[in-house]
Amino acid sequence: MNLNATLFFQMIVFFVLGWFTMKFVWPPLTKAMDDRRQKIADGLAAADKGKADLAQAQARISLIEASAKTENHARMVEAEKQATALLDQARREAEAEKARIIAQAQQDAAQEAQRIRESLRSDVAVLAVKGAEQILKREVDAQAHAGLLEQLKAQL
């Protein structure tokens, strides 16, 4: 075999192999690399969009938390006001009830005192009549009268 012919055939085989690779092998490889590159680019874009969405969500969460804290504080203040108002109202009602009970007790005490006075007057009148009756039945004697008056004082 001739060295020139061998080199010539090797060149032809090399060019055929190069043409075959460029025509049938290279396009699917470049297409696969382009698809992979596009997937990576889409993934990075989605990651950036996710980061942006996360930042927006965190901002909204911060706003919602601030709003909730403010609303909670307002509700606490309102609840404290209502509690104070209820306590004041209960205190006023208790004071009114206390005054009513005291007035009723004073009225009852005054009526009881009046009833006792009336009873005492009738008892004193009965005793006076009994004393006069006993004085009139006996003879007039100063010592006897003094003794009867002492008995009346002891009964009163």
- Strand elements, count: 0
Structural class: mainly alpha
Q: What are the low-pLDDT stretches, counting only 5+ consecutive residues below 50?
A: none
| Main sheet attributes: strand count, strand direction, barrel closure | none
CA-to-CA gap between the ends?
170 Å
Tell me the Rg in angstroms. 61 Å
Helix content: over 70%
Number of helices: 2
The number of domains: 1
Q: Could you say which overall geometry the principal axes of the C-alpha atoms support?
A: rod-shaped
**How much beta, percentage-wise?**
under 5%
| Average pLDDT number | 87
Concise description?
The chain contains two helices and no strands. The chain has about 160 residues and is an all-alpha fold. It starts with a helix and ends with a helix.
Structure overview:
The chain has 156 residues and is mainly alpha-helical. The chain has one domain. Helices cover 96% and strands 0% of the residues. It is built from two helices and no strands. Helix 1 packs antiparallel against helix 2. The longest helix is centred in the middle third of the chain and has 135 residues, at 3-137. It is rod-shaped, with a radius of gyration of 61 Å. The termini are far apart. The mean pLDDT is 87. Belongs to the ATPase B chain family. It comes from Pollutimonas harenae. One of its GO terms (cellular component) is proton-transporting ATP synthase complex. Residues 76-123 form a coiled coil.
Q: Main attributes?
A:
156 residues
SSE blueprint and pairings:
Blueprint (H helix, E strand, L loop, with lengths): L2 H135 L4 H14 L1
Helix pairs in contact: 1-2
